[in-house]
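Contributing new records

If you add data, match the layout below exactly. Sequence lines come first and carry their own label; structure lines follow with theirs. Keep one chain per record. Anything else will be rejected by the validation script.
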Amino acid sequence: MSKFTVAGVSTQHGITKVRFANDIVSRTKILAKGGHSPLELVELPKLMTKAEACQHLLDLGGVFNQWAELIIETQGKKEGNTVAATKPAKKAPAKTPAKAPAKAPVKAPAKQPKIAKPVKAEDDLEITEIKTLAEVMAEPALV
């Protein structure tokens, strides 16, 4: 189980969290650089678990009184207890219906080859030219 020498509270983007560390100087710099404000960290009197550190913050009172509910909730989580009085329970996500067994993929019918439409001789210029040429060739030559 991890033990810490620093504990406190910080807020970033409107979200307040209980923080734990082992070096108050570097932790303060990191949180301040990240835009945490307000930032309240204190040195603990001895190495403490997260649950013990939360209790120490509650015992200190003062500035930590405004975050007592959050600290109690965090302490409950770290001790393995849930504190129902501090935060309303979230609704359980709606159950999704069980998935139907996967069906074998349906094969698409084979594409039918396109059948060329018959071309009428008078509609096709090449056929007309070929017929004319054939007729000319078939005529006896005049000499």
